[in-house]
Design brief:
The chain is an alpha/beta fold and 355 residues long. The protein contains 11 helices and 14 strands. The chain has 2 domains: 59 residues, DNA polymerase, domain 1 (Orthogonal Bundle); 289 residues, Aldolase class I (TIM Barrel, Alpha-Beta Barrel), CATH 3.20.20.70.
Length: 355
C-alpha cells in the first residue's frame, strides 16, 4: 500500500496517472492531506467516488496515532506520544511562544549516537522514520492544536542527518506552497555534526536553516560527551560549516548545552569563543535539562551569566534558550519512548552500517 502522506505533489500526480486518472488529481489529493488535514479518502469530496474507491484499495494515509498528550504545568507546551503502524512509539513536542507555534519533530525511532546527556540515546536505534511518518507528526499536532503551525525544528528523537533523504523530503513537503506552506527560514534541521552530510546539504542548495549541536569546544571532552566526534571531529565539523557558509551565504546556529562542572569552565568558554570567531553563526546556550540516571547538572543563573559574559567577547549573537516542557520531560534532550527491541535488531544493524 502506498502511503500518500509522504508523497510530493509530483509523486501524487504520477500515482494518479497510474490509477488511470488525470494527473491534476494528485495535486488535489496533496491539498486535501496537507491543507485540509484529511484523515480519510472519504473526506476528499472533490474527487470522484470511483477515484476514492481506488485510493481505498491501493493507498493509505498512515498518520501516527496520538496515544497520549501531556501538557506542561510551567508553560503551554505539550508533548505528544505517537504509536506508529508497526507498534513503535515516538514523541514530538508543541512549543508555543507568542504568535510563534513551533513543533519539534522526530526523525528516528530512538538514536544510535549515544550522546551521554540525551535521554533518546538510551533507547538505541530501532529504525528510521519514513517521510510520511515525519510529516504525519506535524499534521497530527496541527489537528490537535487547531491553529496554524508557524515553525518546525527537526530536533526531536534521532539524528536527522542519519535519515537524510526522508528528512529532506519531509521538509520539502512541509514547505510546499500547495500544502502547509511553512517558510523555508522557519524550518530548521539540526545535526550533531555529520560533516559529510553538512557538505552534501550545502552542495544541494536546500533552503532550510541549519543548526549544529556542538556542546564541547575540544575533542577530548566532545569525544566523551558525543562519541560521534571520534568519526567527525571538531575540525571536520568546522571545515564543513565553512563550506556551508561559502556555498550558501547563510548563517547557521550553533547549539551548546551548558552542563555545570562539565563544559562551563573558563577554558571551555575561551575555546568556544575561538571557534565562534571562525564561523558565520549565532549561538544558542541551552541550560542542561536533567535526565534520570545521569550525573550532569543544570547550571544556576550565576554560572550561566558567567559563561555568557566570557562567550560574548566573541562578538557573535548569543541567545540563552530556556527549553520549554522540562517538567514533563519534553525539553531539549529529554525525549524517550519505551519500545520492544526484539523485532528490530536487523533493522538497527542495517541502518547504522549504511552511513
Amino acid at each position: 500500500m502506498n502511503d500518500l502522506t509522504g508523497m510530493t505533489p509530483e509523486e501524487l500526480r504520477d500515482f494518479s496517472t497510474e490509477l488511470g486518472e488525470k494527473s491534476f488529481r494528485g495535486g488535489q489529493i496533496f491539498s486535501w492531506i496537507h491543507q485540509h488535514g484529511s484523515e480519510s479518502f472519504t473526506d476528499m469530496t472533490t474527487l470522484s467516488k470511483e477515484l476514492r474507491r481506488k485510493l481505498e484499495s491501493k493507498a493509505t494515509l498512515q498518520a501516527p496515532e496520538v496515544i497520549d498528550v501531556t501538557e506542561s504545568g510551567e508553560t503551554a507546551s505539550r508533548k505528544f506520544l505517537f504509536r506508529l503502524t508497526d507498534g513503535m512509539k515516538i514523541e514530538s513536542v508543541f512549543l508555543p511562544d507568542g504568535k510563534r507555534r513551533t513543533v519539534c519533530l522526530s526523525s528516528q525511532v530512538g538514536c544510535p549516537l549515544d550522546c551521554k546527556f540525551c535521554a533518546t540515546a538510551k533507547m538505541g536505534l530501532f529504525r528510521n522514520l519514513t517521510s510520511g511518518e515525519i510529516v504525519g507528526q506535524l499534521l497530527a499536532v496541527g489537528r490537535e492544536i487547531g491553529k496554524r503551525i508557524t515553525n518546525v525544528v527537526f530536533m526531536g528523537m534521532g539524528e536527522p542527518m542519519l535519515n537524510y533523504d526522508n528528512v529532506i523530503k519531509a521538509a520539502s513537503i512541509i514547505h510546499h506552497p500547495e500544502g502547509l506552506n511553512i517558510g523555508s527560514r522557519k524550518i530548521t534541521i539540526s545535526t550533531v555534526g555529520m560533516a559529510n552530510r553538512i557538505r552534501q546539504y550545502a552542495d544541494e542548495g536546500h533552503p532550510f536553516k541549519l543548526a549544529l549541536s556542538l556542546n564541547a569546544a575540544d575533542d577530548v571532552l566532545r569525544d566523551r560527551l558525543m562519541p560521534i566526534n571520534t568519526k567527525h571531529n571538531l575540525e571536520a565539523c568546522i571545515s564543513a560549516l565553512d563550506h556551508y557558509s561559502e556555498r550558501t551565504g547563510k548563517r547557521f546556529t550553533v547549539e551548546y548545552v551548558l552542563m555545570a562542572g562539565t563544559n562551563d569552565r573558563p577554558e571551555d568558554a575561551t575555546r568556544l569563543a575561538g571557534i565562534l570567531k571562525r564561523l558565520d553563526c549565532k549561538l544558542n546556550l541551552i541550560p542542561y535539562n536533567p535526565i534520570s540516571g545521569e550525573p550532569f547538572k543544570r547550571p544556576n543563573r550565576d554560572q550561566l551569566k558567567r559563561f555568557y559574559e566570557l562567550i560574548y567577547s566573541a562578538k557573535r549573537t548569543v541567545t540563552v534558550r530556556w527549553s520549554q516542557g522540562k517538567d514533563i520531560n519534553a525539553a531539549c534532550g529529554q525525549l524517550h519512548a519505551e519500545n520492544q527491541r526484539k523485532n528490530f535488531r536487523k533493522v538497527k544493524s542495517k541502518s547504522i552500517g549504511s552511513q
